[in-house]
Amino acid sequence: MLLKDKVALVTGSTSGIGLAIARALAAEGARVMLNGFGDQAEIAAIQDELAQLSGDCAGYSDADLSKPDAIDEMVANCTNELGSPSILVNNAGIQHVAPVDEFPPEKWDAIIAVNLSAVFHTTRLCLPSMRQRGWGRIINTASAHSLVASPNKAPYVAAKHGVAGFTKAVALEASRDGVTANCISPGYVWTTLVENQIPDTMKARGLTREQVMNDVLLAAQPTKRFVEPVEVASLALYLCRPEAGSITGANLSMDGGWTAQ
Ligand code: NAD
Question: Which end of the chain is more exposed for a tag (fewer CB within 10 A), N or C?
Fold first, then answer.
């Protein structure tokens, strides 16, 4: 197995893209530390599933990534329970949709904290042990919104552009240490994050559910289909392979052609 004896910390992995990435890494033998919110029984079942997939154990942290102290604790717990992570997937993300002049300031703070600042905190805490080991993979789930904007998503767009820039800087700093840092930038992926923004977009733009899906979400995605979480997961897994060692500082689009336009 490709990732036997490797520890992977995957933030925001109790659902959606993060869960698909956790499964893909566990299937290659990684000991995965899950993180995110959700029903405790469901999360315990996911832990069991990952342990079965990897033939090893899986951990879970309920750290709220908007809180730097909780991030410290999560990385310490991961190190104590499973070992220091040599794969860090910064995937947790939140969204809120509103015009910039009506955007609640506390929502701006939350989006920047979870989608951007948490990426800094996990990276600064995990990078030293990756360097010591001479091998590491930092994979950040950015977004097509790290490259282009959409109306009513100013904080999300700002945070994701920030993640893309941060990733480049980390890639350069770690370039001689066997550590790569990359972003994956999906277009619209069918997950709860997308489903949850439909009502707000309906309200903000005065549209029906079908209009939001076809005329707003998939309007910019030439393939006219949502990206599947497993597609993102297989790219994340590829970035962990030895032959991906020269891919660093990249922002890899998986957006059905959205940002080619
Ligand atoms: P999701 O809502 O299914 O998953 C989000 C995960 O983050 C969950 O596990 C949730 O519990 C966790 N989370 C949320 N707030 C948290 C916090 N404060 N602390 C810790 N964990 C927290 O969403 P998803 O679509 O799978 O999104 C995953 C990532 O992919 C996000 O960074 C998102 O911005 C990005 N992304 C999603 C899409 C899409 O279309 N779904 C497109 C591009 C990028």
Answer: C
